Amino acid sequence: MKAIRTHEPTGISGLVFEEAPDPRPMFCEVLVKVAACGITHNELDWPVWTCRAGHRRTSIIPGHEVSGVVAALGFGTAGVAVGDEVFGLTDQLRDGAAAEYVAVEARNLAPKPRTVDHVHAAAVPRAGLTAWQGLFDHGKLADGQTVVIHGAGGAVGSVAVQLARWAGARVIGTGRGHSRALVTELGADRFIALDADGLQGAAGQADLVFDTIGGEVLAGSSDLLKPGGTLVTIKADARLAAIRGDITTVVFIQESSRAQLTELARLVDQGHLRPQVGAVYPLAQAVTAYSAKAAGGVPGRIVLQP
Ligand SMILES: NC(=O)c1ccc[n+]([C@@H]2O[C@H](COP(=O)([O-])OP(=O)(O)OC[C@H]3O[C@@H](n4cnc5c(N)ncnc54)[C@H](OP(=O)(O)O)[C@@H]3O)[C@@H](O)[C@H]2O)c1
Fold it and tell me: CA 145 to CA 127: how far, in whole Å?
């Protein structure tokens, strides 16, 4: 099959479009014919060169958000059938979906949302699971509470704004000024442009801060919280150690969950969640796609199509 691969930990610059072995579905796995693949611009900077068995990987196919059609089943795989349309988040430490085919554990897939195409479905899995787990599993966001969402125009942030709104929260989105129109349109009550305004105007207002930016923005975020509030970040950062003692802080990495994928698909089909796709590129132009997102200014998710 054709795939995007890298053979060295050199980030985006090492990606090549080439022939790769066809993946084979193992026990309880599914072979998916990829229709669309969502990418995260800095995923190759994560510690992904060691597989779960502890061995160094010799190559990587990136892109772990997939939407496609079941092409074959591994031994013992039940609950899905050849021809089913599915979407999901593939294991970060295995070859991903920037390819014509990907082998995925069936538990990491759910039926694709019916009302959107594969391109938009592929923008949901990582962004949706991360936003869900950040807001509800870790952040315990409840109806009537106020949440500040940093990076609200990005892939994760744009889903988080919509989920928080659906849950009945008051939403303050932040980001660069170019995100204002989108974030407001997605349902935020207020937008703070971090490149123009300070965060001081929102001091002490939030029950929850959900941070997707890190760095200085994360460092200045504890002041936004009410006493007893929660600061959840998806950016690992040593600055957390210096944060106030009267708040809860959580750093986490998203996990796949068929139940949450199913719930996200339901919200898409009911019109509560509109996946944001900033650009679509052919698989062969993956380097351009990763570079464009890394340069900033592209809203939502970039999606590749084989
Ligand atoms: N821990 C986890 O489980 C997990 C899961 C998913 C993602 N992540 C990580 O979380 C981060 C966000 O992911 P994503 O896919 O949502 O990325 P994304 O689509 O690039 O979203 C980030 C958003 O934040 C904005 N932003 C970044 N730096 C900013 C700054 N200094 N001031 C104001 N706005 C800023 C970006 O604007 P511009 O486009 O203008 O730069 C963009 O709108 C990435 O680093 C990703 O690797 C972690």
Answer: 22
Q: How far is the CA of 142 from the centre of ligand 1 (A)?
A: 24
Residues 84 and 169 in one domain: no
Q: Does the beta carbon of 40 sit less than 6 angstroms from any atom of ligand 1?
A: yes
Does residue 63 carry a pLDDT above 90? Answer: yes
Whether residues 43 and 77 fall in one domain: yes
To which residue do tokens 């809860």 refer? Answer: 248
Tell me, what CATH number does 24's domain have?
3.90.180.10
Give residue 240's pLDDT.
Answer: 79
Same domain for 137 and 232: yes
Q: Over the stretch 105-163, which tens digit does the pLDDT of each residue have?
A: 999 999 999 999 999 999 999 999 999 999 999 999 999 999 999 999 999 999 999 99
Is 9 contained in some domain?
A: yes
Closest ligand 1 atom number to CA of residue 157: 16
Separation of CA 179 and ligand 1 centre (Å): 12
Same domain, 104 and 206: no
d(CA 176, CA 248): 27
What are the tens digits of pLDDT across the range 208-245? 999 999 999 999 999 999 999 999 999 987 777 778 89
User: Does residue 257 lie within any of the structural domains?
Assistant: no
Residue 214 sits in a domain of what CATH number? 3.40.50.720
Whose alpha carbon is nearest atom 26 of ligand 1? 151
pLDDT tens per residue across span 147-204: 999 999 999 999 999 999 999 999 999 999 999 999 999 999 999 999 998 888 888 9
Residues 213 and 113 in one domain: no
- Residue 191: closest CA among 206, 177, 203: 177
Which residue range(s) make up the domain with 164? 127-251
Nearest to 69 by CA among 34, 106, 19: 34
Report the distance separating Cα 275 and Cα 120, nearest Å: 6
